[in-house]
Amino acid sequence: MRLLLINANTSTAITEHLVAGTRRLVPADTEVVGVTARFGARYVATRAAYAIAGHAAVDAFAEHADGADAVILACFGDPGLMALRELSKVPVIGMAEASCRLAAQGGSRFSIVTGGAGWPPMLREFVGLIGLGDQLASVRAVRPTGADIAADPQRSLAILADECRAAAVEDMADVVILGGAGLIGIADMIAREVPVPLVDSLAATVGAATDAIVRARENSPCKVSRQDNGVESVGLGTHLAALLESQTERPS
């Protein structure tokens, strides 16, 4: 099994953090390929950075997707997710969507705790777009960004535990997601301090990717229908331009 893990921001340290975390969650013979965005913000925390990250994720996919059994979009908020799914012949799993769908199972109300003050409105919109807005109890953001937390997790444990408890007690969440690449592994560190289950966003995503690969292998190949033309483009990276121009077949 080969997993392509796309970090849609430009921090190689976060990519390495994600790859190491993924390798702890998969069988030893699984190949995990981590790719860092070629351009954009070091850490996605604004709408402008999010928009650029969607382009960067598709650009990375175009260059590195060959041979992958599944693609993990490892940037909480899932910039470019629908575009990746349009282009990909294999499952594409977004970190935010996978986490939210896991947390919402059985009709549970869930909260998201993340790093960076700009994320709450963006994440509320995202949860609404995937159809789970009625189950979202709250989105809480701590002052340190995910990059800050990844660099020094111990320093942020107390504030993250406080926010998770508040989500459970004040917002009446049944489940709390610790959302973001920088927060992977934190759930296990603070689980005893929070009265409801915690979801690690990377673990949720890897689990969803593994399940999607199994389903894809069980299903017969889909039929394709020809389109008249690919997409002509200007100014894009070489691999992405070629991929768009080659899109003359689509699932029917």
**Proportion in helices:** 40-55%
Q: How confident overall, as mean pLDDT?
A: 92
Structural class: alpha/beta
Percent strand equals: 15-25%
At the third CATH level, what is the topology name of the largest domain?
A: Rossmann fold
CATH top level assignment of the largest domain: Alpha Beta
The side-by-side strand order for the widest beta sheet comes to 2-1-3-4
Textual characterization of the structure:
With 252 residues, this protein is an alpha/beta fold. The chain has helices spanning 12-23, 47-64, 81-87, 95-103, 119-129, 146-151, 153-169, 186-190, 201-218, 238-245; strands at residues 2-7, 31-36, 70-73, 92-94, 110-115, 136-142, 175-179, 198-200, 224-226, 249-251. It contains ten helices and ten strands. Strands 2-1-3-4 form a four-stranded parallel sheet, with helices on both faces. A four-stranded parallel sheet has the order 6-5-7-8, sandwiched between helices. The radius of gyration is 18 Å and the shape is globular. The chain starts with a strand and ends with a strand. 46% of the residues are buried.
Short structural description:
The chain is of the alpha/beta class and 252 residues long. The protein has helices at 12-23, 47-64, 81-87, 95-103, 119-129, 146-151, 153-169, 186-190, 201-218, 238-245, and strands spanning 2-7, 31-36, 70-73, 92-94, 110-115, 136-142, 175-179, 198-200, 224-226, 249-251. Mean pLDDT is 92; it is low at 223-228.
